[in-house]
Design brief:
With 145 residues, the protein is α+β, with helices and mostly antiparallel strands. The protein has a 4-stranded antiparallel beta sheet, with helices on both faces. It is globular, with a radius of gyration of 17 Å. The chain starts with 12 loop residues before the first strand and ends with a helix.
């Protein structure tokens, strides 16, 4: 539960915008997120769905909306808003008409212990970068040659 969050022990938090061309959100992402949360790999902190229609109008469905809350009961009802209205407007502005996006903030619970140990030792992470998927795919492909 979010009431168990403690700034000293919380793991790193990531935000991802997952875009779906043509509003083709088939629902496979939600079970994958639920599985990661159930297994303790991540904790969903904030989740919003943004949809832009052909005329440019935007629909926003937040984590506390009943349909989304039913799917993510562990965090539903909490008022932990990491994603501001301005953040969601920025996402919506970047979407082409007839598309949608899931905007999700999650705690990397798998890394919480390491983070606490680093802080407890007086250390700090001074650089953290995600290697783009294309770079990883190229490196994996190069192993086969």
């Amino acid at each position: 539960m979010l009431s168990e969050l403690n700034a000293d022990t919380v793991g790193p938090v990531d935000v991802a915008v997952i875009a779906f061309e043509g509003n083709r959100f088939n629902g496979e992402v939600v079970p994958a997120l639920q599985e990661l949360q159930r297994d303790g790999t991540v904790r969903i902190l904030d989740l919003t769905f943004v949809r832009k229609t052909g005329d440019g109008s935007v629909d926003v469905v937040e984590l506390t909306d009943p349909a989304v809350a039913a799917a993510f009961g562990q965090v539903a009802g909490s008022q932990f808003d990491l994603l501001s209205d301005e953040d969601l407007r920025t996402v919506a502005e970047g979407l082409p008409p007839e598309s949608s996006a899931a905007v999700v903030a999650w705690e990397n619970t798998w890394a919480a212990r390491l983070g606490a140990a680093i802080r407890g030792s007086g250390g700090e992470i001074v650089m953290l970068e995600r290697i783009p998927r294309t770079s990883v795919a190229e490196a994996v492909a190069a192993l086969g040659t």
